[in-house]
Amino acid sequence: MSLQTTTSHLSAITKVEVFRVPPRWLFVRVEVADGTVGWGEGTLEGHTEAVEGAFLELKERFMGWDADNIEDIWSHAYRARFYRGGEVLMSALAGLDIALWDIKGKRLGVPVWQLLGGKVRDRCKVYGWIGGDKPHDVVNGAKARKEQGFTAVKMNGTESVAWIDSPTILEATVERVAAVRALGLDVGIDFHGRVHKGMAKQLARRLEQYQPLFIEGG
User: Fold this and answer.
1) CATH for 128-216, among 3.40.50.1110, 3.20.20.120, 3.40.50.620, 3.30.70.660?
2) CATH 3.30.390.10 residue ranges in the chain?
3) What is the 3-state secondary structure of 152-201?
4) Which residue numbers delimit the Mandelate racemase/muconate lactonizing enzyme N-terminal domain (predicted)?
5) What is the pLDDT of residues 104-146, one digit of tens each?
6) Which of 27, 80, 200, 206 is 20 to 30 A removed from 69 (C-alpha atoms)?
7) pLDDT grade, residue 5 (50/70/90)?
8) What whole-number percentage of the chain has pLDDT above 90?
9) At what angle do helices 48-62 and 70-79 cross, to 10 degrees?
10) pTM summary value
11) Contact in structure between 143 and 176 (CB atoms under 8 Å)
């Protein structure tokens, strides 16, 4: 038996499992013939069952394929059907792709970042998530992150399930951001799609003075 045949046999995909983790996460576990296991994530909020269905199709299609041939598997998954792309398929395909790279790294004994070209920096600035569904949570969360050594945070721009659809709510939103900036922290803001179009420009103008790192989900 040739080395190539042996390698292909040992890296054949033998099991694909999907796991839901509350409140929204979806993970895929892929195992190959030699027992190596790779993990990937295919989370798509609000469409978990649909992505699970896509994983089932991918499982049936690629069982027994050589997990080392990541690009071949990706290309077949994307191109072998008439309708391509879309959030559901691409989320499942991303999860499978991550798991296959995890397997390759483990089998070669190297971290995946080395396989993808190596590092470009030794340090990376990060921010801490503070939530903020309730007004008092914002400042308390920001203070806690600052005590942990963070210099930047990401926060909810508004209270839970609240639309920014009036000047009053807009001003309350600006006050939340101002309170965090007053602590000496940089801030990124996530609005989770709660900003009405008519208020978006006004909101951006009012927030400009606080120099947000980014405004997400407007």
Assistant:
1) 3.20.20.120
2) 3-115
3) EEEEECCCCCCCECCHHHHHHHHHHHHHHHCCCCEEEEECCCCECHHHHH
4) 25-117
5) 999 999 999 999 999 999 999 999 999 877 767 899 999 999 9
6) 27
7) very low
8) 69
9) 120
10) 0.78
11) no
Residue at token pair 């801030």: 187
Task: Return the structure tokens found at 68.
Answer: 């080392």
* Multiple choice CATH, 3-115, 3.30.390.10, 3.30.420.40, 3.40.309.10, 2.60.40.2470: 3.30.390.10
Mean pLDDT of 174-200: 89
| Predicted local confidence at residue 6, as pLDDT | 43
The residue whose two tokens read 């609000």 is 46
Pairing of strands 37-41, 128-131: unpaired
